[in-house]
Structure formats: structure tokens, C-alpha cells
Amino acid sequence: MKVFRANLMRLTRPPLPPQEKDNPVHVAIRDVHKTYGKQHVLKGVSLDIYRGKTNLIIGPSGSGKTVLMRQLIRLETPDSGELLVNGVDFAKLEGLDLAAMRRTFGMVFQMSALFDSMTVFDNVAFPVREHTDLSRTEVRDRVMDRLSALGIAGAAQKLPAQLSGGMQKRVAVARAMILESEILIYDEPTTGLDPITTEMVDELIVEAEEMFGITSIVISHDMASVVRIADHLSFLHQGEIAATGTPQELLHTEHPATAEFIRASRITLDS
Fold this sequence. Notes:
Helices cover about 40% and strands about 25% of the residues.
């Protein structure tokens, strides 16, 4: 166990293959299937996640969004299909190779999932302390750099309960990026937030993307956010990608289920 931990602490993300440098597709999901018993949840999902862009995956409850996310970060292994991350099939990796590739991803959970008993500083420092052998000074400098970049350095010694919902989300983003992940996945980031805080979180997603050059994957059913922030949009319906394209393209789609979902949201291009 000690040997494995020592190896894990020295893991770094796989280097970007030269042929992938100019590839606009950061993650290529190809024909992914996932079944639980007799329930076939993902039925050949294929879609592209574009590098340095905000990619939204939307759909009604029960469409398979959360299951797709679990395959994407390899909390589970797809029954079949490919998850090509920088050209490497993530679905086939195991052991230390799998652990290293996971460093490519950072996760911002639905309700931020901060440790209530830890300060903001310690919440953000936690992954660094667990997965690197940086010195205390190096950890402090890295954490404060991220907090400063996101405008929350002044909250370093506060507890999560002392922060607003929007500030908590900033802390969650700082923690997700602290291992210098290339891709951030946001799980329903605006659920339960008021309209003003929701707009602040949307702005945070775009801000983090522009500031750090990361690729954003947002799992959501909030069409208002889609119109505000999405560069590329995929609609998941009954375990399949029913439509994909820009928000403008999907807002004018003729696919029945997608069109019905959009009509029910009462969202227009002018919203």
C-alpha cells in the first residue's frame, strides 16, 4: 500500500501526443454502452467535446446524463465503446495509467461538496496534499494563487458555511483546478440556486475557461444557462444523443424530443 501511494504521488498526466496538439476535439466519445442488469441506460452514445470550449450535455431527468458522466471520469467502466482523451482510449486504461489519466479531469459537484469542517484553504489544498509530494510552502503558494485568480483569497480562512452559494462554487472550481486539470466537469452547477447566483455561476464557468484555457463539460437541464454560455451542445434522450450542435442550431432543431424539451423551457435566442 505504501509503495502504491508513493507511486501515485508522483503521477503526472500523460503528455499530449504531438498529433493531438491541433486537434479541436479534446474528448471523443464513441458508441458507449452501459447496462445495469436489464436496464440499458446508454445506448451507443457518440459525441465530441471541444478543446477550450464550453460543452453542455443536457436532457430531462432519467436520460442518462449522470451515468454518462460516471463513464467519462471512469468511476465506472463502459460495457463497450471508446472514451478517447487526447487520442488515448481512457476506457481501456487500468492501474497507474488510469490514475494518471484521471488527473486530466477536475470535478465540480452539484452542491459544491466542500468539507464543512475545513477552511476554504484546506478544502482547496486537500487534493494537493493527497496526490503530490509538494512542500508546505509550495502547497500554500499554489492554493493562494488559485484563490487569488478566482477572487476569493480573502476567504481563505473562512468555513464554507460562511460563504454565499456563488462563493462556494468558486471554491469548488479552485479545488477542481488545483491539480492543473485540463478538463473541468460541472454536475448540474446551478441546481437550487437563485437566478442572480445562477448567472454568477454561469459567468464563473466562462471566466475559468478563458483564464486557464480549460475545456468545460457542463451536465445540466438548465436551458437558460445553455443560451448564456454554451459553445457546443448535445441533447441526451433515452440514452442516446438525439441532437448536437451550437445552441442556435438546437434551438431550431426539428428533432421532436429536443424541440419539445426546448419549447417547455420557454427559452429563445433573445433570453
